[in-house]
Design brief:
mainly alpha
Length: about 130
C-alpha cells in the first residue's frame, strides 16, 4: 500500500535521519536487500529514496517504515510532547499579556470616566445678562 507519493516531506526525512540511522529503513523488492538511510536521491524526478545501484524508488518502503518503526514513533511522540509544552507555555504568555491589556484598558476607561465626571461637576461660569 503506497501512502508516500514522490518524495517524503522534510519532517519525515529528518525523522528518518534522527530515529532510524542505526537500522534498515527499506527493503528492495527486486533484490531483497535491506538499506539504511544512505539511499540516493533524484531531485529532478522528485524521488527521494532510491536504491544506489539500480535506482529503484524505495520512498514507499521508507515511508511505511516510519509508520511501523518504534524508534521513529517514540521520537515523534517526544517531539509532539515538546511541541505541546511549547504551545502551552506560549498560550500562558499570551493569556498573561491579554490580561495586562485588559487591565490597561480598564484603567484607561476609569481615567476617562473620571475626567468626564470632573468636567460635568464643574459649575458653569455665570453669564452676564
Amino acid at each position: 500500500m503506497a501512502y508516500f507519493v514522490g518524495m517524503l516531506m522534510p519532517e519525515e526525512r529528518a525523522l528518518l535521519f534522527r530515529a532510524c540511522w542505526d537500522h534498515p529503513v527499506a527493503k528492495c523488492r527486486r533484490c531483497r536487500c535491506s538499506f539504511r538511510i544512505e539511499l540516493a536521491a533524484d531531485l529532478f524526478q522528485r524521488l527521494s529514496h532510491l536504491r544506489p545501484r539500480c535506482r529503484i524508488d524505495l520512498t514507499d518502503a521508507a515511508g511505511e517504515h516510519l509508520l511501523s518503526c518504534a524508534a521513529a514513533t517514540t521520537l515523534a511522540a517526544q517531539r509532539a510532547c515538546a511541541d505541546a509544552q511549547t504551545i502551552f507555555a506560549t498560550a500562558a504568555d499570551l493569556r498573561k499579556e491579554a490580561q495586562r491589556f485588559r487591565d490597561a484598558a480598564g484603567a484607561a476607561r476609569a481615567e476617562s470616566e473620571a475626567a468626564r465626571y470632573a468636567r460635568e461637576d464643574v459649575p458653569d461660569s455665570p453669564t452676564e445678562t
